[in-house]
Write a structure and sequence with these properties.
Layout (H helix, E strand, L loop, with lengths): L3 H15 L1 E3 H8 L3 H13 L3 E4 L2 E4 L1 E2 L6 H5 L3 H12 L7 E4 L3 H9 L6 E5 L2 H7 L5 E5 L3 E3 L4 E3 L1 H8 L3 E6 L3 E3 L3 E4 L2 H12 L1 E7 L7 E2 L2 E4 L6 E5 L4 H9 L3 E5 L3 E3 L1
Parallel strand pairs: 4-14, 5-6, 5-10, 6-7, 10-13, 13-16, 16-17
Antiparallel strand pairs: 1-3, 2-3, 8-9, 11-12, 12-15, 17-18
Length: 261
């Protein structure tokens, strides 16, 4: 029979390798009661080894890989389009906006074509390309150094441009969201640019599909407390929703009735 600490380590290893496991599955695997497994999962979550969910646990995934923009564009496309539509409903004619680089903000750019008067600041080549022909949109490009992987402009020129503006709303994207660590992305230069975006808006709105929750990347961007509003999709877990709401963030779930109190 395993000692308690040994069992907990094996549970953590199992969840990490499988990415998720149910309480019932773990109880059968390790020959203990479900109440013991729940206690073990609570201890492991407090030690930042995994994240508990309703009925089980998921791995705290390290996500330092950097897929290209094209590779990411079609991942969870329906969810990203729903999030973008929800985000567009928050925008009013005449608003000044910053659109961060990312595939979900790119889908939001497509929604902006319905507006007659906006000012949009962006460091995203794809967002700029999408809005370039829209005469009713005053498009401000930050300049900077192009990151080919994400088609984002980064570096001192980008940051200087972002530091010189202040807008109504910033729509931001992220690679990983963790309640203890915060918001992270794989690249330090992109993290630095994103930090500037968070500081230049009255309201910061995070666009994040459910796959971003429970992931941690290399470079920290912000704490959860730096977000005013998060728009996600209905694949989000109850535990992730609870974390956002307890952080005082207004949450909208695309396709599920909008803002939650």
């Amino acid at each position: 029979m395993l000692f308690e600490e040994e069992r907990q380590q094996k549970i953590a290893d199992y969840v990490q390798s499988k990415e998720r496991a149910s309480v019932q599955e773990l109880a059968q695997l390790f020959g203990v009661s479900e109440s013991t497994v729940r206690r073990d999962l609570k201890i492991l979550e407090e030690a930042n080894q995994l994240r508990r969910t309703h009925g089980g646990a998921v791995a705290l995934l390290s996500d330092n890989s950097e897929p290209s923009f094209v590779e990411k564009e079609d991942r969870y496309r329906a969810q990203k389009e729903a999030i973008a539509k929800e985000a567009a409903a928050l925008i009013q004619e005449g608003d000044t906006l910053v659109l961060d680089s990312g595939t979900t903000t790119y889908y939001l750019a497509k929604q902006l074509k319905a507006f007659k008067q906006l000012t949009v600041v962006t460091n995203s080549v794809m967002v700029a390309q999408e809005l370039a022909a829209q005469k009713g949109i005053d498009l401000v490009l930050t300049g900077g150094t192009l990151r080919h992987e994400t088609l984002a402009m980064v570096g001192p020129l980008t940051e200087k441009a972002l530091e010189s503006v202040f807008v109504d709303k910033a729509f931001v994207a992220i690679n990983g969201i963790d309640p203890a660590i915060g918001l992270t992305t794989p690249n330090m230069l992109e993290a630095s640019a994103k930090k500037c975006i968070y500081r230049c808006a009255k309201q910061v709105i995070l666009l994040a599909d459910h796959s971003k929750f429970g992931r941690v990347s290399f470079a920290k961007v912000a704490d959860l407390s730096d977000i005013d509003h998060c728009i996600t999709d209905d694949g989000i877990s109850d535990s992730a929703l609870k974390v956002l709401e307890e952080a005082g963030i207004e949450v909208s779930v695309a396709g599920s009735g909008g803002a939650r109190p």
